[in-house]
Amino acid sequence: MTSIESVTLEVADPAVARSFYSSAFGLGSEVRVRGSEAPATGFRGFTLSLVVAQPADVDALVGAAVDAGATTLKPAAKSLWGYGGVVQAPDGTIWQIASSSKKNTGPATRRIDEIVLLLGVADMAGSKRFYVEHGLSVAKSFGSKYVEFETGPGPVKLALYKHRGLAKLVGVSPDGTGSHRLTINGDAGPFTDPDGFTWATASQTASL
Prior knowledge:
- Helices cover 23% and strands 39% of the residues.
- Helix 1 runs antiparallel to helix 2.
- The chain is globular, with a radius of gyration of 16 Å.
- It is of the alpha/beta class and 208 residues long.
- The strands form 3 sheets. The protein has an 8-stranded mixed β-sheet.
């Protein structure tokens, strides 16, 4: 089963980015950063999600992110599926913080249950087929809108979403140009998928 050990974000200032992710979310090796001046404008075609147990944890993480310099794209609120909000980190990465629960069961812990990488794709059927051919197994599939893959013991889960739908979900324009500024580090690569998302092996990124 394919495992994703981490993602690498290409940022203008690695020291600032590391400080943000440590302060805001308490993340370590799951999210790596490296310096890059690759041109990128607008929506970069992906989001990262932090899945937590209850609304209090959502509020705590959103608050910590804003205090550390993030911009609120969607304030935390209840929805049909649960409770969540969206922020944009200083490096431009968009983060969804969400819980399937609408009620608190205790004090906030800021414990993260799952990290989910959502890739915005142009052709859902083609991208789904590409990943299956590269050894990933489909866990859930909702037609042309959403596909979730089985992943191994690595800390990052993977799902596909229609590009325009993903942009709408997080409250930004779907338009964007240039680099995704993202590398996925797992045991399925190395390769580049149909939408230009790059995968590398763990050995390629071990020194970052």
